[in-house]
Fold each of these.
Amino acid sequence: MKELSLHILDIVQNSIQAKASHIEIFIEEDLSINRLRISIKDDGIGMDQDTLQKVIDPFFTSRTTRKVGLGIPFFKEAAESCGGFFVIKSELNQGTYIEAVFQHNHIDRVPIGKIHDTIMVILHSDQQFDLTYRHRYNQKEFKLDTIEIKSILETEDLRSPDILIWIKEYIHENINELKES
Amino acid sequence: MKLKQIIESLQVEMMTESADLEAEITGVYIGDLLSLVMAKAKQGDLWITIQTHLNVIAVVDLLDLGAVLVAEGVDIEEETLAKANSLNIPILRSRLSAYDLAKKLSQLGL
């Protein structure tokens, strides 16, 4: 995909489908060791070991409408073609953990892209869940936690246009600041 | 245009065994970003790419593309060829660039 944030969107949609109540996205950019790590962790229904083996196979999907599901194979390929690696762990009824590591300056590594748009789209989902998004850039870190936002706004539902657009702009500004200094 | 006409005219290597040489190729798509190819390529297209990962075969299967033409003579993984064989997906290969291949295909009338 043209942006890593689209891979994140794809993987998080799996978490939502897996009925996760808490999803954690962590992006870690450490230029001192030239590494970009993206991890997504959920507490959804998870997979047994048999299914886990199959999801990295591009000819497998949990959807019956289509013969191939390509979100995980594409993400894995992206990491491996940029001098990195891919990890997936899952336990039935516990959740799933996915990690993609890239060589930060690899010429084929696509940009992280519009992560603020991705988070907004994720939060617009019909399902109810909480999301933590952390983004570390060298020593500095930005964190967004929907539990905190809900408590500040005294609402259980963030899916109003005003709130979503505010969150999107808040992320955008903070990530820009993180990378400026 | 039939696949065998393309193979003969372009002098490309046939990398798979079980392909139907009478298959009809109806267009050409060039691209190396699989997600974009998934969105843009059409059924029956000959897909020119330098990607050779197993995911290529999944995209061909999903879109029912006519064949894959690997440009620049790059190596193709065994796993990819095996899957292509099992699904009767033709994989061709040429030393030429995608641009040079496109020029020849254009001259053939595709």
Note: Strands of chain B lie at 13-14, 27-30, 45-49, 67-70, 91-93.
Amino acid sequence: MGKEVAESCVESVLMEMVSAYCNRFYANKPELAARRIEAIGYQVGHQLSERYTMERPRFSDHLEAIKFICKDFWSELFKKQIDNLKTNHRGTFVLQDNRFRWLTRMSIDPVPVIVKDSSQEAPVGATENKAEQATTMHLYFPCGLIRGALSNLGIPCAVSADMSNLPACSFVIRIKV
Amino acid sequence: MIVCVAVVGHQNNPLYLQSFTEADDALKLHHIVHCSLDVIDERVNNPKKIGSVLNETFLGLLYPTENYKVYGYLTNTKVKFILVTRDLDVRDADVRNFFRRFHTAYVDAVSNPFHEPGKKITSRIFAERVSTIVKSFGLSAAV
């Protein structure tokens, strides 16, 4: 019954969307572009959560809903589950994916040391920074996905992403009380 | 025969309400649907009362009136489906089957990118699908 699309198409659409928003519509306002991309993710997550929770009993607490995101939701999207889930039991959850599918094609120079005091190092730092910024832009969509899915399940939250060691990626969910 | 189906949002806002009777009793059916919201709230807040499976989406018979039976269904996203039927001997399996198909139709309707979440469902295709499902419910109950 389910319709399928090639994975490469999804990745192309995602890349095209990010580049369209960052380089064409809001070229000078990266914050606005980020918000728009996140909003698209939110809508998609909102709709997907409705579909993927169809045949299951209702969740009784937050942890169950988060587990659903880690297992079923992630498997539907990325054919794998979240590798590690941490929580402080006070509304913050960290979901770590050791090989996040949408980042496996990204490459950032593994030169994290940026010398700040020398003036000729500055351009290197700038390009590094730019590549990182571009990668960050690609993470607003999955953040929106998670936020949309959870808020449709009745859990308002804020989601941010951390990609300090590619291609691993962790998503931090803070549930609003 | 199903006389009325309704979709009610998580803030008890009506999203879709359709009656299937010739007579002019839409207001009465609307009232029945409205009353059943309290029963759903009660069921959800006292989960022990629901059969063997905890937190099942299918809420079962909400209440019988003299002429109607009202069934409820609550999705994970806190959207309620309500079914009012005039048949007095309805098989549970038929109702479950109805809700499953109805839920599929609903999911397809809200996945439309032009549908605004939390707003009434105005899709004509959804209305057509619902009326097909409603008609086939009558048939399977008769067999």
Note: Chain A has a mean pLDDT of 82.
